Amino acid sequence: MPTKNYEIQSINIRKASRTEYAAINKMNNVIRAEVYPDDPPMPMEEYCLCMQNIPTYVDVKFWTVSDKDKQEIIALGNVEFQRTDENQHMADFNIRVLPDFRRQGFGRKLLQRIAEAAKDENRRLLVTETESRIPGGDEFMKAIGGKKALEAHANQLMIEDVDPELIKKWLLIASERCEEFTLGFWSGAYPEDKIHEVARLYDLENQQPFGDLEMDNEHATPEQLRQVEQQMFARGNQRWTYYLVENQTGKFVGYTETIWNPNRPEVLDQEMTGVFPEYRGKGLGRLLKGAMIDRVIRERPQVKIVRTGNADSNAAMLKINIELGFKPYMAINLWQVEINEVQKYLDRKGEATV
User: Fold this and answer.
1) Phi and psi (nearest 5°) for 256?
2) Cβ distance 119 to 292 under 8 Å?
3) Which of 166, 198, 202 is nearest to 289 (CA)?
4) Which of 181, 135, 129, 173 has its CA nearest to residue 151?
């Protein structure tokens, strides 16, 4: 299809028209079927609510490659700038092109817009992910001068493969070893009187392996957590949280979370699991994971798959997940590229930038 039949258009993704949302969601679902062939498509209403509730501290620039009426979108790109105190040198970006339109220069033209926006924000580093089911993503990142910062996998657990005796064993051993801790549970929003403690729990995300990624530690604020919740719940997600408190001090020492959406009833997303370093080696990670899986089996019988993401270098968490029965589902690479390398690539290809 000739490039001249399509044009790049900027969209305010928070306030797009129904026609624009429908076209974007249709395209996203084609890509989604490539990356997650076992999952159903995302309903347009969920996508609309997700975009309309993007946290205010996230600034999103969004472009589509479409026909004049914006009813057929063949490619899209976006870049996100976090309006926070940390990581003011970097920005996350994403480019997607439908299979029939790849290798025709659309990704490059979207990259030009992304680079211009990053320069305007004085961001020197762009970060993105690629998936093994779309191998062209790795090729593109190599071509523009990107460096692979972290290798990871999406791992899956089939509920039918869970050994109930293993779960019982984990919970029994943990209860015997961990009398100094209390296991608690929240469904939905975090309690207002605990929101500051939860923000500190989120600091555990900084202890995950990030490979060679040039990223500073981030610290979520209570206001940011509430905005994330607003977007999460607006799109219909339901969150379960198990946490551990040290009885003597009342300090939160670890937590695990899952996200479930009735639009995808068979799939459960296992989010962060973490325990502060001074409390490790006591089986608390297995206690948290075991309690969550046990509850899912009892109270969410529609769930057949639990999916999570793990850095390949995260040996401690991988050991627990492998014991549970998680298996690799898809390879994911985290890439970073300097803006000056992007500019060199665009110059070679004859793309003008500001």
Assistant:
1) -145, 150
2) no
3) 166
4) 129
Distance CA 255, CA 203 (A): 11
Long-range pairs for 112-116: beta carbons < 8 A, 24 or more residues apart? 112/346, 112/351, 112/352, 112/353, 113/8, 113/10, 113/61, 113/63, 113/77, 114/61, 114/77, 114/78, 114/79, 115/339, 115/342, 115/343, 115/346, 115/353, 116/353, 116/354
Rounded distance between C-alpha atoms, residue 82 and residue 147, angstroms:
22
Amino acid at 291: A
The partner residues of 158 in beta bridges, in order of sequence, read: 305
Copy the structure tokens of residue 188.
Answer: 């939905």
pTM confidence score: 0.94
**Beta pairing class for 181-187 and 327-338:** unpaired
Helix (H), strand (E) at residue 45: helix 44-52
Give the Cα separation of 259 and 40 in Å (integer). Answer: 16
What would the pLDDT profile of 119-140 be if each residue is shown by its tens digit?
A: 999 999 999 999 999 999 999 9
The three state secondary structure string of 220-273 is CCHHHHHHHHHHHHHCCCEEEEEEEEECCCCCEEEEEEEEECCCCCCEEEEEEE
Residues 6+ apart with CB under 8 A from 83: 56, 57, 58, 59
Asked if 284 and 275 count as a contact pair (C-beta separation under 8 A), the reply is: yes
179's tokens: 């009398």
In tens, the pLDDT along 9-26 reads 999 999 999 999 999 999
Identity of residue 328? P
**Contact yes or no for 158/305 (Cβ under 8 A):** yes
Instruction: Name, in order, each residue with C-beta under 8 angstroms of 172's C-beta and a sequence gap of 6 or more.
Output: none
**Burial of residue 85, with CB atoms counted within 10 A of its CB: 0-12 exposed, 13-18 middle, 19 or more buried:** exposed
- Listed in sequence order, the residues at least 6 apart from 25 whose beta carbon sits closer than 8 Å to its beta carbon are 42, 44, 47, 48
Beta bridge partners of 90: 125
